[in-house]
Amino acid sequence: MSAKQLEQAAQAERTAFVFPGQGSQKVGMLAEMADQFSEVRETFAEASDAVGFDLWNIAQTGEGLNQTENTQPVLLTASIALWRVWLSLGGVAPKFLAGHSLGEYSALVAGKALTLTDAVKLVNLRGQLMQHAVPQGAGAMAAILGLADENVLELCQQASLTGEGSVEAANFNTKGQIVIAGTTNLVEQVMATVKAQSGKAIALPVSVPSHCSLMKSAAEKFAEALEQTAIELPIVPVIQNVNAKAAQSVAELRQALTEQLYKSVQWTSTIQLLQDQGIDYIVECGPGNVLSNMAKRLPNIEKTFALDNKSRMEDALNAILVAEGKIA
């Protein structure tokens, strides 16, 4: 899909597209869509050629799917496949793009800041560097629910001061839901304290403690790859994870992508910005509906959509075209 084709798509004023990160993968993802839309297999073939292994086979068999260096290119490719189907069916170009963690790369491909070929190579490397940054079992992540953000941050700070290592807020997902990441024993310490305070703490089945200072060594190496990759400012604004802003220069964009490895995902602030900019409809472009379900609970969002099967895709197409005044 060329930049010109994206520019020619009907422009939305009230719609944003969001792209999911790790955790949304599932075995057999997009199988139904691939039978009905040629863009799906074509996109996977293009991405597979770039990284040198069969991403579609991993997606369908599940073999190696949960290894970070595989998960990231597979998910990015699945999201871009759905994006291409959306445009091919006459879907609108959104007013804003955003992606949760890995999903930020999908947003940048959709916005023509990165080619799919370069992006899958980057996220494959990103996954490898993240996997190797911390010894297996040395890092962990957990979702914390039911406590104020300030309380969770204080618990992390206290644990980091008293123990060896660190634990930090990794994702600010919604009000009352923070994901923490860091040294395993300190994550477990915070979880125990949260439960003692009548909050909820759920250990996440991940092999890498993302978005915390344990990833700084990975970020230093990844910055070199970013410098060698052709990047442009996106033609649709992409709200970045680390600061909930759209980059004003390519240098800013590269810096934010580097920092994203070891700084918190500011998803709550990202969605608030979208609402402040008049966004009423959020479309999740990727396998599953994690982000659209989170947005459903927001008072100023009229409706959310997922695109991961044909009926959902068609419902979203019609609803958005009507809501944006493109069809009666």
TrEMBL record:
Domain of life: Bacteria
Gene3D superfamilies tied to this protein: Malonyl-CoA ACP transacylase, ACP-binding, Malonyl-Coenzyme A Acyl Carrier Protein, domain 2
Pfam families per the UniProt record, alphabetical: Acyl_transf_1 (PF00698)
The protein's enzyme class: transferase
GO biological process, one term: fatty acid biosynthetic process
SMART domains on file: PKS_AT (SM00827)
GO cellular component: cytosol
EC numbers for this chain: 2.3.1.39
One of the record's GO molecular function terms: [acyl-carrier-protein] S-malonyltransferase activity
Limits of the Malonyl-CoA:ACP transacylase (MAT) domain: 18-312
InterPro entries per the UniProt record, alphabetical: Ac_transferase_dom_sf (IPR001227), Acyl_transferase_dom (IPR014043), Acyl_Trfase/lysoPLipase (IPR016035), Mal-CoA-ACP_Trans/PKS_FabD (IPR050858), Malonyl_CoA-ACP_transAc (IPR024925), Malonyl_CoA-ACP_transAc_FabD (IPR004410), Malonyl_transacylase_ACP-bd (IPR016036)
Coiled-coil residue spans: none
UniProt keyword list: Acyltransferase, Transferase
Family to which the UniProt record says this protein belongs: Belongs to the fabD family.
NCBIfam families per the UniProt record, alphabetical: fabD (TIGR00128)
Protein name per its UniProtKB record: Malonyl CoA-acyl carrier protein transacylase
Taxonomic classification: Bacteria, Pseudomonadati, Pseudomonadota, Gammaproteobacteria, Moraxellales
